[in-house]
Amino acid sequence: MKIAHSHQSSRVVTTTLLVALMCPLAAWGHVETGQAGGFLSGLAHPVSGLDHVLAMVAVGLWGAQLGMPALWVLPVAFPMMMAFGGMLGLVGIPIPGVEIGIAVSAIVLGALVLGQIRLPLSAAIIVVAFFAVFHGHAHGTELEQGQNALLYSLGFVIATGMLHGVGIAIGLIHRWKLGERVLRVAGALVMAGGLLFLGRALG
Amino acid sequence: MKRFPILPMLAAGLLVSPCAAYAHLVNSGLGPFYDGALHLLLSPVDLLALIAITLLAGCAGARAGRWTAVMLPLAWSIAGLIGLESGTGLEATWFSVISLLVLGGLVASGWQLAPAVVATLAAFCGAANGLLNGSALASLGAGFVSLMGSAATVMLVTLLGAAYVVSLRSAWTRVVVRVAGSWVAAIGILMLGWTIQGAG
C-alpha cells in the first residue's frame, strides 16, 4: 500500500514538472533595463571584487570581536563613508592610490582581526571610515552610465550591509575558544589576500 | 483498475493556461484608487523617504507616531490637490536627496526628537512629496481618486510602520532600525553624487 502511494506521488511530481516546462513564459520584450538593471548592478558591484569582499567581511569580523557597540557602529560607519567615497568618485574628485588603499585596508583589518586588537570605539570608527572612502571611490568611478541612480544606490548599500552581516555572523563564533582561533586564522587569510592585492596594485 | 490522475491533470490544466505577458505595464487594473496607491509603491524615492519618516516617528515614540500618522497623509492630500490642479510635472531631485540624507541621518543618529518636531518634519515632507505626486499624477491623466489612493497608502504605511517600530523593545531590534536609517542616509549621499554629476 505504501509502495503504491509512493509511485502515485512520484508520478504526480514527474507530471507536474513536465507540465511546468510547458508553461508559457512572459516574453519580457520591453523590460526597463535601466530600472531592474540598476538595482541588480548595484547589488552586484560590491561583491564583484574579492578585495572589496575581504575588507567588508573583515569589518564585520572585527566588529564581532570588539562586541557592543562596535558590533553595529562599524557596519553603520562603513556604508556611509563608502557612499561618501562613491560620491567623490561620481563627481570626479580624484583620490590618489585608491587600489593601494583598498589592498592596505584588507591588510590592516585582517591584522586587527588576527591580533584581536581592541582599539577605542572612536579610533575603530576612524580606521574603518578612512578605508571605506577608498572602496567607495573605486565603485563611484567604475559606475556605468544610464543606470537608475536610486535603485543602483539601493542595491549597492544593501549588498555592502549584507557583506558586513556575513562578517558579523561568522564573527559570532568568537564566543567559543575554538571559534576565537578560527577567527584569527580568518584574519590572517584576509591579511594574506590584502598582501596579494597590494602586490598587484604596486606591480 | 488504473485510477484517472486527477491531480496531475489539474496541475497541467493550470500550468498550460495562457498568462498575460505584461509587456506594457500601465495600471493596476483595479481602478484609479489602486492606481494611485501603486504609483506611490512603485516610486522608490517616495517610498524610501516615507519609510525613513516612519522609522523616525516610531523611534520618537507612540505620541510622535500618532501625530505623524495624521499630519503626513493630511499634508500629502492638501499639497497633492494643489499639485493636481497645477499639473506642471514638477521635478525636485534635490529635495528628494536632501530628505533622504536628513531623515536617514536622524534615524541613524538615534536622537530622541520631540513629537512636535517629528510631526512638523512629517508635515513638511508630506507636503513636498504630496505636491510632487499630485503633479506627477496630473501629468499621467489621473485625478482626485488616484491622489486619495496614494494618500491612503501613505497613512497605512505610516501607521503600520511607526506602530511596529514603537513596539520594538529589545536592544538589537532598535539597532536594526538605526542601521536601516544609516542605509537610507548612505543612499542619500550616493544620490547626491549622481545629482551633482547629472547637473555638471
Task: Write a short abstract of this structure.
The complex is a heterodimer of chains A (203) and B (200). By secondary structure, chain A is an all-alpha fold.
If you had to describe this structure to a student in words, what would you say it looks like?
The complex is a heterodimer of chains A (203) and B (200). Chain A has helices at 2-22, 33-44, 50-66, 70-91, 98-114, 121-142, 149-171, 177-202. Chain A is mainly α and 203 residues long. In chain A, helix 2 packs parallel to helix 7 (149-171) and helix 5 (98-114) packs antiparallel against helix 8 (177-202). Mean pLDDT of chain A is 80; it is low at 28-33. By secondary structure, chain B is an all-alpha fold. The longest helix of chain B is centred in the last third of the chain and has 29 residues, at 171-199. Chain B is globular and about 75 Å long. Residues 22-26 of chain B have low confidence and may be disordered. Classes of the chains: A mainly alpha (203), B mainly alpha (200). Chains A and B meet through helix 1, helix 4 and helix 7 of A and helix 1, helix 3 and helix 8 of B.
What is the secondary structure topology, with strand pairs?
The complex is a heterodimer of chains A (203) and B (200).
Chain A: H1 2-22, H2 33-44, H3 50-66, H4 70-91, H5 98-114, H6 121-142, H7 149-171, H8 177-202
Helix pairs in contact in A: 2-7, 3-4, 3-5, 3-7, 3-8, 4-6, 4-7, 5-6, 5-8
Chain B: H1 6-15, H2 32-41, H3 44-59, H4 62-86, H5 93-109, H6 115-139, H7 144-167, H8 171-199
Helix pairs in contact in B: 2-7, 3-4, 3-5, 3-6, 3-7, 3-8, 4-6, 4-7, 5-8, 6-7
Key structural traits:
heterodimer; A: 203 residues; mainly alpha; 8 helices; globular; B: 200 residues; 0% strand
Strand content range of chain A: under 5%
Distance between the termini of chain A: 71 Å
Number of helices of chain A: 8
H-E order of chain A: HHHHHHHH
- The computed structural class of chain A is mainly alpha
Order of helices and strands of chain B: HHHHHHHH
| Oligomeric assembly | heterodimer
Low-confidence regions of chain A:
28-33
Query: What's the total count of β strands of chain A?
Result: 0
Low-confidence stretches of chain B: 22-26
**Coarse morphology of chain A:** globular
Helix content of chain A: over 70%
**Share of helix among residues of chain B?**
over 70%
SS class of chain B: mainly alpha
User: What is the gyration radius of chain A calculated from CA atoms?
Assistant: 22 Å
